[in-house]
Structures are given as structure tokens and as C-alpha cells.
């Protein structure tokens, strides 16, 4: 088991109970889909997969060890597990595409040559080569999403977590993003994705969890989940 949420319970400061005893497991090579309506708790769970939120109860397990929340452990954890936020505007800050994608690798204090190589490769992989000098705020929604994905890819994570990557995209844009996730998975990256858009799920997910009002109410293969309704 690569990444696991074990008995995670979490309430926000205002008392909202967002997660109740959530268990979810991810194996190397998986594409795991987390289904749930708006407000089910998907984003809250994903913020635990990046260590931004810390559970009230339960733990995050990475490669068999409990996640610790000191700075050093979190930096190491975030190199392995990259979170792509739902709204790229929460993630893109730099004045140009290339500077944005370079941000993570620069933070890792990698040599400039390596940073440039990673930025170039990441932009190629998401189909955004040629956009290096563009200002992110001039890009379309789908393009911004690709740049945000490139920024995470440039960190060379083992696991990528995508919060609602198809939200707000038209069907064509959505299937492009799904194809990109499949490609990344074929290249060895383990994928976790949340969505309320069930139509595409059987095409890509090998394991599905259903989250409802903060609780996992179903899990299994896509076939299990979609045939027993
Ligand atoms: P989803 O991603 O499935 O739409 P969220 O994780 O965003 O669900 O939300 C789960 C629950 O937590 C909802 O009831 C939501 O209103 C609440 N919530 C989310 N963020 C906050 C916050 N910062 N403060 C208080 N409540 C929040
Ligand atoms: P939007 O629909 O929001 O404009 P898209 O996701 O459709 O965004 O595409 C973003 C940009 O990336 C477009 O300029 C498109 O031509 C380009 N693009 C999309 N997919 C690929 C790909 N696989 N290879 C190369 N370029 C691509």
C-alpha cells in the first residue's frame, strides 16, 4: 500500500463535520476515483493528502509509515504526493507560465539546468510547450489547468491527486484532461481523482470510492460500483 487514509475524522473550526472515519487505500499504479456530490468532503480529504489539513482522529499512511507533521517530513511527503487544486487560480501565482512551473523545482534548490529541463518536459507532457512566456491569467481555464498540472509534474511526484480536474470544462476539455491522466498513469504515476461527474469514471478508474456527507458509503472496482445500483 502506497498511500492510505486510515480512520480520518475532521471538523472545521466552525464545527462543520467534514469527514467521519474515512478509510481509503491507494496502491502503486492505481487510478483511484473518489465520487461524491458537492459538499461530500472530497476537497477536505485531499487537503489531508497534502498535509495542509491534519486529522482530528486517524492518520495518513505513506509507504507504510504514519505521516508526521514537522516541516521536514511534510516537505518529503509533498515531493512524493502532488496535489492539483480544483481551481488553478489557487495554485498559479507567477507572472509567466515558465516561472510558475519552475517554482517547485527552484524550491527544491535544484541546479538551474535541471530546473529548466523539468519545466520544459512538464510543459511538453501537458501539451503546453510554446506557452513559456505567456502570462497565466491570459490563458483559458483548460490551459491554466494544464499549467497547474505541469507545476506539480515538475516536482516528479510518485502520486498525483487531482481535485475535480474536469469541473467547469466542456465535454471535450474534460476528456482531454482524462486522457492526460491516463497517459501520466501509463508513465508510472499513481493517480487519485475526485469528481462528481460519474460518466467518465468507468473509462479510467480501477478503484472507486463513494463519499457521502463525510462518510465512505461504497468502494470497489468501477464494475462493482456501477452495476449494483
Ligand atoms: P467537496 O470537495 O466534496 O465539495 P468539501 O470538502 O469542500 O466537499 O466540504 C465538505 C464540508 O465541509 C461541506 O459541508 C463544506 O461546506 C465544509 N467546508 C469546506 N471548507 C470549509 C471551511 N474552510 N470551513 C468550514 N467548513 C468548510
Ligand atoms: P480550453 O478548452 O480551455 O481552451 P484545452 O484543454 O482544450 O483548453 O487546450 C489547452 C491548449 O492546449 C489548447 O491550445 C490546445 O490546442 C492545446 N492542447 C490540448 N491538448 C493538447 C495535446 N495533447 N497536445 C498538444 N496541445 C494540446
List keywords for this structure.
about 230 residues, alpha/beta, globular, binds adenosine-5'-diphosphate, ATPase-coupled transmembrane transporter activity, ATP binding, nucleotide-binding, ATP hydrolysis activity, ABC transporter ATP-binding protein
Radius of gyration: 17 Å
Tertiary shape? globular
Largest sheet, strands/sense/barrel? 6 strands, mixed
Question: Ligands bound here?
Answer: adenosine-5'-diphosphate
- Please report the number of helical segments: 8
Along the chain, the helix and strand elements come as EEEHEEHEHHHEHEHEEH
What's the count of strands?
10
Broad structural category: alpha/beta
Poorly predicted runs of 5 or more residues: none
C-alpha termini separation: 28 Å
Instruction: Please state roughly what percent of the residues sit in beta strands, choosing from under 5%, 5-15%, 15-25%, 25-35%, 35-45% or over 45%.
Output: 25-35%
Mean pLDDT: 94
The largest beta-sheet arranges its strands as 6-7-8-3-9-10
Into which percent range does the helicity of residues fall?
25-40%
General description of the model:
It is a peripheral membrane protein. Keywords: ATP-binding, Cell membrane, Hydrolase, Membrane, Nucleotide-binding, Translocase, Transport. It is found in: Cell membrane. The chain has 229 residues and is an alpha/beta fold. It is built from 8 helices and 10 strands. Strands 6-7-8-3-9-10 form a 6-stranded mixed sheet, sandwiched between helices. Strands 2-1-4-5 form a 4-stranded antiparallel sheet, covered by helices on one side. β9 and β10 (215-220) form a beta hairpin. α3 packs parallel to α5 (141-153) and α4 (112-125) packs across α5 (141-153). The longest helix is centred in the C-terminal third of the chain and has 16 residues, at 171-186. The protein is globular, with a radius of gyration of 17 Å. The model has no long low-confidence stretch (mean pLDDT 94). One adenosine-5'-diphosphate binds next to α5 and α6. The site of one adenosine-5'-diphosphate has 12 residues, from α1.
